[in-house]
Specification:
Blueprint lengths: L1 H34 L11 E9 L2 E8 L7 E6 L2 E2 L2 E2 L10 E7 L8 E7 L4 E6 L10 H23 L2 H4 L4 H32 L7 H23 L8 H27 L7 H19 L10 H12 L1 H11 L3 H26 L9 H18 L5
Antiparallel strand pairs: 1-2, 2-6, 3-4, 3-7, 5-6, 7-8
């Protein structure tokens, strides 16, 4: 009873403050609108097109109200020509979505400019760069996404891990250089994903945070992987061995989730060039990720085949999930958030790797490690030029 009483005495003041805040906010919500003047300017109307779905003779747009005021759609134009449409009869409240079905005989591979006119005369523009029939989410579609994710995710990563026997023959200095190369590889992935996330966030309406979603995803992933690392470090896993390899696999996997997302989204809108160039380009590019995964295992007892395959699947399989999500759910906010998660995970892995790069004197940036990190950055950049997706 004494412990319970002490706990109540400790938390009672805080609960009282929370209750007071809740009452105050409720009162402001009820009475604030009555005491403040109405807006003097025109309504603020904003719509963001979240998804474009094309079928024979019809263009379907999913729009979200990202502004402060309700929006009523009055007319829709395609290439400056008025078109009949269904949907949008009622005003769209803030953050709500509406589906507009445009009756329009579009032609394949042609660009279209869609203008949505609101009841107050505001115009929301949307571009369709090249019209193609949106693929149906059927068995064949999911099979293709699984195949693509396997080709560009799992297979290249596992192939890169085959360098392990060679890497185990290098000395202590060679291991440090190799880990510096890994840091360079991962740093490039983090920078690339950050830029891509910010670019996507700029296309969003901003109602859910825009670029803040990238930062939020990165912070959450960094904290989550830090907690996982703390959990693993309490076990028997060697600090610079399998634990680091597992963390790298998870970080690379979360990055490949965003990579698969881009592939699926590009396929859904007809911008993905399927073929040998795509597969070979991604294979060469992502093979370096497999090299990064096995680099901490060079001074540990030889891992089993099952362990290596497990690490490869953890790193590569998320590309399959990303491709499925990207091909079925076109949402810039979700894409930005997932890319941010990949950035945070990779950043946490880099933090874990940096101490292992130091020499016996505690120096981090000697010529060998600087050269290794530079080589990692250049390797990712040059192999990235082969990727056409």
């Amino acid at each position: 009873m004494t412990t319970t009483s002490n706990t109540l005495r400790t938390w009672a003041p805080a609960l009282g403050v929370v209750a007071l805040i809740a009452l105050t906010l409720t009162a402001l919500a009820v009475l604030g609108g009555r005491t403040l003047p109405d807006r003097t300017g025109p309504p603020v109307e904003e719509l963001a097109v979240e998804r474009t779905h094309l079928t024979q003779g019809e263009i379907t747009l999913t729009v979200r109200n990202t502004g402060a005021d309700p929006v009523r759609v009055a007319q829709v134009f395609v290439n400056d020509a008025y078109v009949d449409f269904a949907g949008g009869d009622a005003a769209i409240d803030r953050l709500d979505t509406e589906t507009l079905r445009l009756n329009y005989p579009w032609q394949a591979e042609q660009p279209y400019h869609v203008s949505i006119l609101t009841a107050t005369g505001a115009v929301i523009e949307h571009e369709i760069d090249a019209a193609v029939t949106t693929p149906q989410a059927d068995g064949g579609f999911f099979a293709l996404m699984i195949l693509l994710g396997t080709y560009v995710g799992i297979i290249p990563v596992v192939l890169g891990m085959l360098f392990l026997p060679t890497l185990r023959r290098i000395g202590t200095r060679g291991v440090r250089v190799l880990l510096a190369v890994t840091v360079g590889l991962l740093a490039f992935l983090a920078i690339d994903a950050t830029l891509e996330g910010f670019e996507l966030a700029e296309k969003a309406g901003g109602a859910f945070g825009g670029t803040a979603l990238v930062v939020l995803g990165a912070l959450l992933a960094f904290l989550a992987l830090s907690a996982l690392d703390h959990r693993l470090s309490r076990g028997r896993t060697e600090k610079n061995g399998l634990r680091l390899a597992l963390l790298i696999s998870i970080g690379v996997g979360l990055h490949n989730l965003g990579e698969g997302l881009a592939i699926g989204a590009a396929y859904a809108v007809g911008e993905l060039a399927l073929g040998v160039t795509l597969v070979v380009g991604f294979a060469i590019h992502n093979t370096t990720e497999g090299l990064a995964i096995v680099s901490p295992l060079t001074q540990r007892r030889r891992p089993g085949i099952g362990t290596l395959l497990g690490l490869g699947v953890i790193a590569g399989a998320p590309a399959i999930l990303g491709a499925v999500i990207g091909g079925t759910v076109t949402n810039t906010e979700l894409s930005s958030f997932l890319l941010g998660i990949g950035v945070g995970a990779i950043a946490q892995v880099i933090v874990q790797l940096v101490p292992a790069v130091r020499d016996k004197a505690g120096r981090l940036l000697d010529p060998a490690t600087v050269g290794g990190a530079t080589a990692g950055l250049l390797a990712m950049y040059l192999t990235g030029l082969l990727v056409t997706a």
